[in-house]
Each structure stands twice: as C-alpha cells, then as structure tokens.
Design brief:
Three copies of one chain form a homotrimer. Chain A is mostly helical and 359 residues long. Chain A has one domain: A middle domain of Talin 1, CATH 1.20.1420. Helices cover 81% and strands 1% of the residues of chain A. Chain A has 14 helices and two strands. Chain A has a two-stranded antiparallel sheet. In chain A, helix 2 runs antiparallel to helix 3 and helix 6 packs antiparallel against helix 7. The longest helix of chain A has 32 residues. The radius of gyration of chain A is 20 Å and the shape is globular. Chains A and B meet through helix 6 and helix 7 of A and helix 13 and helix 14 of B. Chains A, B, C: It is found in: Endomembrane system. Chains A, B, C: Pfam families: Na_Ca_ex. Chains A, B, C: One of its GO terms (cellular component) is endomembrane system.
C-alpha cells in the first residue's frame, strides 16, 4: 500500500470518530480514532503546503510548511488550554520541540540516508535558524530555570516573567521574518530554479481550498481528542506528562513529519531541515508566546514554568541536534543517533513519576 | 550631537558629582552623577587605547583594549570589595561576562550589521579565544556547581576550592598571553597592514597620559559610586543581585562597549569581537581570580560560589555567544538575538527575589 | 631513561606486587605496586595494539586501540563490581570519560603541539565520533538528571530505566560499528598508505600473544588492586568518589594514554584523537551498558544514577572537548586548556564531601 493510499484509508477515521463520539463507543475509542483522523488531515495540509511551496519558492514555502504544521499543534493546544488542561499544553510545547528536533529530523536523516550516502544542506541558513531556535528555546526555559534554582518565587512573578518573555519572543519572531523575507532573502533563495524544473506549476487555489477544509476538520477532531484525552490516557496508564510530551506532539506534528521525511527522500535536505528546525523555532518563538498570552486572555493563566526534567530533555534535544546538524551534512547514522536520543528520552518520560523536586 | 560632543558633555558630570558629594545632594544623585562621570572617562580610555592600538598592532592592541576596559571594572570591584560589598562584586563578575557577550557583542553586530550586509572575522583567533573563555567561565562556575549539587559543603571548602581555581586560572592566563604574543603571534597579526594604511601614526605619549589621568579619575568617581551604591539602588527598588549583574557592568564596561561598537561600524569585526570575547575571557581568567586573592589578602574573603541562577545566566550567555560567533560571520539579526537574550536575562534578574534554593 | 626502559623497569612491580600480597606487606603497598604493575602491562597492550593497527589499517586499528585500552578498564570494573564496590565502579565510568577527554587528549595536544606548531585531524570522523559520544554520554547521564530534578523516583524505576538505556546504547554501538566498518568505511581509510610506508609489517601473531598474556596479567593484578582499594585509599585520606573518578581511570586508561600521546608526537593526530574520543565513546556506549547488565546478572545491581556533581563534571568535559576539537586543529595551548580543566575538576573532586543534595 503506497503512502497516498494509506492517507486515503486513514480519512475513513473521520466518520468513524464522529460515530464513536455520538454513539458513545467509549472515550478511548474516540481518542484513538480522532487522533488517527487528524493524521491524514495534517498530512494533506503538508502535501497542499508543499505544492504551494513549489510556486511561492522555498523561503515562503518553508515558512508555510512550518506554519501549517504548527497550525495543527496550535489548534489542539488552544482547545486544550480552553478546556483547562494547562499541564498537557505546557508539556506539548516542550514535547513538540523535542519531537521536531529528534524524531522528525531523525527519520528524515535516516530515511534520506538509506537512499543517499551523504546528504548536504546549506549551512548558512541552518546556522541562522539554529541560532534563533537556541535563543528562543533558552528564553522559554528561563522561568523554569529561575524557579528551579531559587526558593520563594511566587506564581505571580513566574506569570509576569512569562508574559514579558512572550512579548520579547514575538518581537524576535517578527524580526526573523523581516530577515528571511526582506533584508537577507537571497540567503534563502538558492534551489528555487531546481524545484521549478522538476515540477509543473500546481494550482494554488485548489490547494489553498484543501488547506482550509483540512484546518476546519482538524479543529473539529481536536475538540473530540481533547475532550477524551484525560480519561483515555489514564486508561492506558499514561501520565499527563507523557501524554503531553510524547503522544500529543506525534499527532500534532504529523504534517511536518510527513513533509520533512518525503522531501528528505527526494534529497532536498535543505527543505527537510528547514521544516524540522524551523518548526521547533516557531513553536518556541511563536506558538508558546501566543499560548501564554491566550491563556492570560482566556483566564486560564499559563506560565512558562515547566517540569525541570522537561527543561533537561529540551536542552538535550537542542544540544544533540546542534551537534549533528552544524556541519551541513547528514548520513543514516546521524539519523539513528537522533532517534536513539528520542527513544531514551521517551523511556525516561515513560518512567517519570511527575513530581518535581523543587517548589 | 555627535559622539565626541556627547562625551565632552558627560565630562561635566565630574564636577557635578563632586558637588553632589560634598554639598550632600543625596545618595541617589551622587550615585547617578558618579556613574555618568565614569562613562566619558571609560570612553576616553577606550579612544586612547584604540589610538595606541593602531601603533602597537591588533594583538597588543586588543589586549590593551580589554585591559583598560577591565581596569574600570577592576577598580570599581576592588573599591567595592574593600567596602565589604562582596555580593555586589561577585554579581558584577558574572554580570560583566554576560554583558560583554550579549550586550556589547550584540550592539556591535547589530550596528555593524545595519551598515554592512554581512561582516566576517577571523575564525581561528575567535575559536582560540572562545575555547579559553569557555574553560575560564566553566572553572569560575565550578564551586557554585559543586555547592548546588551537594549538601554539606562548608564555607571553608568553598573558599579553598575558589583559591585553588584562582591560581590555576592565573597560570592559564599567563600561558594564553605567551601563546598570543610569542609562540603563535602570527595568528593575530593579520590586518596590521590595513590599519596602518588608513591612519596617521598617533602620539603614543599623549594618549598614554590621557589613559593615566582617566584611570585616576575613574578610581575617584568609583569611590563615590560605591559609597552610595547600596542606598541609591534600594531607593530605586533594585536588589543587590540586579545592581551587581546589570547596573555595575553597564557602567564598568562602557569602554569596551564604546570601542567594540565603534570599530564594528568601521567593519573591523575582528577587533570588535576580540574586545568583547577577550574582555569576558579576561574577567574570568584574570579579574575574578585577582579579586578572590585580593579578598583573601584584604580580609574580606570572597569565594566563587555564585547564586545558582547567575550560573544559569552565564551558561546561557556563553552558549548563545558561541552558537552565534562560531561561524566567523555576523549580521544584524544575530546582533538582535544577542540583545534579546540579554533583555530576557535582564527581566529574569529584575524579577528575581534573590533567595537560592540550596544551602 | 627512555620510554621503553621505564616500561621494562615497571614490569618489576609484577613480582613485587605478588610478594607484597603474599607476604602481607600491607594494603597500601599492595595497592600501589599492583597499580604500578598494571601500567606497563596496559602500555604493552597499547604497543601491541599499535603494531597490529599498522597491519589492519587505521579504522580497525583505532577500534582495537580503544577496545584493549578499555579492556583494562572493563576488567578492573568487573572485578570491583563483583566485589560489591558499586560506587567506585560508577565513579570510574564518569572518571574514565573525563580522563580520556581532558587528560589523555590534553597531553596529546600539548606534547604534540610542543613539536608541531599546528596539528590537524580529519574533522569528518572527529565529528561523527563526537556526535556518537555526545549522545552516549547524555544517555548514560539521563537517569541521574531524572533523579536530580524530581522527587519520589524509586530505586526500581532508576534500575529499570538504566537497563532500558543500556539496551538502547548497545544497539547504537553495533550500528556505529556497522557505519565505520561497512557503509561508510571509506571515511576512515585515509592515511593507511602513509602508515604502511613508514613501517615494516609487524608480526601479528607475536603481538597478539603479547596482548593475551598482558590481559591475563592485568586481570590478576586487578584482583589485588580491588581487594586493597578501600583500605588503601582511606589510608591516603581519599574518598571513594575521588578514587573512582580520578585514581582508577588513570591506572585503567594508561594504555590509551600511552598510545594517544605517542602517536600525537609522531603527528598522527587522527589516530590520537580517535583513541581518546573513541575510548570515551566506547566507555559510554559499551562499557557502561555492559556493567549495568553484568551487575543485574551478578546480583550486584548497578544503576546509572551518578552523583550529580559527576554529571556536571562529565558535561563540562564534553563541552570543553567539543569546543576544542571541533575545528580539526590543535596546538599546545588547547592541550593546556584541557589539562587545566582536568586539574580544576580534580581539585573539586578532591574537596568534594560526597553528599548529594537530593535523594
């Protein structure tokens, strides 16, 4: 069964999840079928985005890829936040960064590396993205580090610091866009010619329609997913930490995942890395700040004080991803190392009893 | 108003601060005017140093730049240490490293980057400096890390370890000078020819005189600054941690700041980076050890056990600065990222209630 | 006295240690003489391995070097584990990583750098090794990080997580060998021609015999070393932490040390680095997991929950070694920096009172 056929098959879970929900087949069934239904929708969003990316060029294309991959993430998170699942939403932020840097980048390098002995990517862009991501990730972890290293930090201080950090990050995000689209756009334009040669121009309007419909359906399925999340995962014996860090991001990042792996197997590692690193960067620079501010507006205050072990895990993911991607080359072993790091972190979160030592 | 005119104007604060002090205009006024009076003096020291640097070449020039920038720092710190403000002095060490790596390097890359699309610097020297700085910074943070990760560390152990670390660092400092001036001086000599072409030979004796006079005046103003520091900052609602980490280094590093930014805007990024990184290196390899030993001699024992969040902040600053400077290229966005990191850390120190969780 | 003569002289400690043991000259004498007897044996193993390496090429040669260096380590550790010295064995794992990255690499770069102004090594292999080592080191530190950042982690959870991590690491180790010997062997083959030109083909069988005999003797001496370790080191006023982190690895790593420094002084930095980094990698990817599994089998359960300060020290060693080796060049100052880092860590472990703050 080819990739396209699997996606068509998974679309069946849209009606199945609806049936499960309205016919009361149980929370676990609803949760699983809604989760499965989101996968093809996110993947179609990915395909649509890739098609549109061919027309609009790799810069805007990479940005589009990351935005609409993160749209799934953002939709699930906003619905969960509104439902009061603050802990799961916070865990899904760190989990999403970890999963993009280790799981998505790992599979891209592994599957790309099984086809091509060595793959290369433009290290200038990789470096700028990595620097922005490093800054953003450190910034969102700062309230956690402060709370972890000091006693007597009140919730109000953490909330104020988190809001202040969120505002700085959104400004940085805007400047990053200015850099990549205006002042230094030429850095990102290499490879456009290549892409146009191998592809007939797709219909932008058609694919934009696909994007819109999928977005609405994702929102609908997310409502069912979030509504059943707590009971379903506790039935499976999973903690809210594991659910947030591992389960939710796998569903939410399916689009980037599909896109990044597909283009890696076509030896377009530049686009692949720009999706994985760009997506982590955008989670930290845009999604996390938006959620902090949204939580404040919705009256469901969400600070950036994560579980200290989440902080460790994100630091680990960033260090390994930097170490592996900084030379602008990849091979299957590097992909395997990223996946091994993800596995080990996943095991740790699985065993984690979710009680932090401080505070 | 041009830069030179601003400096001339700020010189007025020398008599004003004297008046404020002897006519008892209040601690806050004395503190602010003495701080403002130090700025042009430090800047003149910077100008004098840059002029002398043209004659003696970039190696010795870079060293001179860092030394006389750090002279301001060292003078303020010694006076504060003698006055018993051990906490402020300790915080000013970490703050000075952070401010050189993020604020000074950030403004240099931003303002340089607004004039030149991309600026380059010799990565060999940058790398050797970065390695020395990494080692030095890690070494001065080690007593903090030990105290933070273990219970039952006595003050005597911390003091002994700090003294031992100080001796090792001063030896390393001497070897670093041997490397850059003797065995591998050729690495640092590139660019001398350029400098000589664009500049008529300045009068070394004249500028040395300026350096001397400014040094004496800085010492005098520092006495007034330190004498009013505690009351003035508590009037402003600032903690001693914030004062040490943020306020004192901005005053103390004004010289490096002015020099680094000025030369960055003339596209001499090599000299600019060598000032910022070299200054951080020298704070950790020379100023901090000297203060530990001076404290021991003066009977005001000062160990290297910092607030754990200072350790986090320095680690963050070093990681981001390494990540951004390691490719030997810079642009305005990289400068902005450094400044954003500084802003976020500044916010965290502003909100910090200054009670460490361990010990 | 030449190197060879020193080694011949040290062989005298084999009969001396036997006499000390059976004539009851005291634990300290047995400990010291057994330790000294291991040095020439390990060094002969190193020489034998280097000779064999010339025939079998640098890849397999580098691997052989690391394996038989680590054989000494593994033998001592297994005997100590069986004797119930779990804390010393755990400390010797982190100590061995630290000593390879800082002491062995440091002396190689320093002594090589005193002969050659600048030495270079193939950065592709260095980078792959560094990435594997980074992953492995992070993985073995993860249980410690989890226990340190959370309360309520039971010993059973730590044991299970440690076993799971061990299995993942052994799989990664197998894949690393597949990479370096099969799919990407060409990356490691540069330099074979050079080696063959300068050397007549040695007798593989003779040197294999030497390896075998030395291995058996090392095992025998290790029995005496371990049997007297606790009493001897407490007589010297050393904690078990210092013994495990500093003393045991210096004895256990003598082979790599001798090999790495010798080849560095012949300007074969590729082989030298591959010994030092490869050995650290192998400790983390192979020796540590084998010990965890062996402890489980032997009924002496050993988890990977180290003293938090060991975690800090390993992280520091890895960061500095990465920072210094990532550019594929070395000089005497870089060697000195590594040795300074080792000295400072050694001082900290010397002063450490061995009571962790959590758990």
């Amino acid at each position: 069964m080819s990739g396209k056929n699997i996606l068509l098959f998974l679309l069946l879970f849209i009606p199945v999840s609806l049936a499960a929900n309205f016919l009361h087949w149980g929370n676990l069934i609803v949760f699983i079928t809604a989760g499965l239904a989101i996968l093809p929708l996110a993947a179609w969003m990915g395909t649509a985005t890739e098609e549109i990316a061919v027309v609009v060029g790799p810069t805007l294309g990479g940005l589009l890829n990351a935005t609409f991959g993160n749209a799934t993430e953002l939709i699930i998170a906003l619905i969960a936040l509104n439902a009061g699942l603050v802990d799961v939403v916070k865990a899904s932020i760190t989990g999403s960064i970890i999963s993009n840097l280790l799981l998505v980048m790992g599979f891209s390098m592994l599957l790309g590396g099984l086809r091509y002995k060595e793959q290369t990517f433009q290290s200038v862009v990789a470096r700028v993205n990595a620097s922005s991501m490093n800054l953003a990730v450190i910034a969102i972890l700062l309230p956690t580090a402060m709370n972890y290293t000091s006693a007597g930090i009140s919730e109000k201080i953490l909330q104020n610091l988190s809001l202040a950090v969120a505002v700085v990050l959104i400004l940085v995000y805007a400047l990053t866009l200015l850099f990549s689209m205006k002042t230094h756009a030429y850095l990102y334009e290499v490879g456009v010619a290549d892409a146009e040669e191998v592809h007939t121009k797709p219909n932008v309007w058609l694919w934009s329609g696909v994007l819109l419909v999928c977005t609405l359906l994702v929102a609908f399925e997310s409502e069912m997913l979030v509504g059943t999340l707590e009971e379903a995962t506790s039935q499976l014996g999973l903690t809210s930490l594991f659910t947030g860090v591992i389960v939710v991001p796998i569903i939410g990042n399916a689009a980037e995942h599909a896109t990044a792996v597909t283009v890696a197997m076509k030896d377009k590692m530049d686009l692949s890395l720009s999706v994985a690193v760009g997506s982590s960067m955008q989670i930290a620079l845009f999604v996390a700040p938006v959620l902090v501010i949204a939580g404040w507006v919705l009256g469901k205050p969400m600070d950036l004080d994560f579980n200290p072990f989440e902080m460790v895990a994100v630091a680990v993911a960033v260090l390994i991803a930097n170490s592996i991607s900084s030379d602008g080359k990849s091979n299957w072993l590097e992909g395997t190392l990223l996946l091994a790091a993800y596995t080990v972190l996943g095991l740790a979160f699985y065993f984690h009893p979710v009680i932090s030592s401080v505070g």
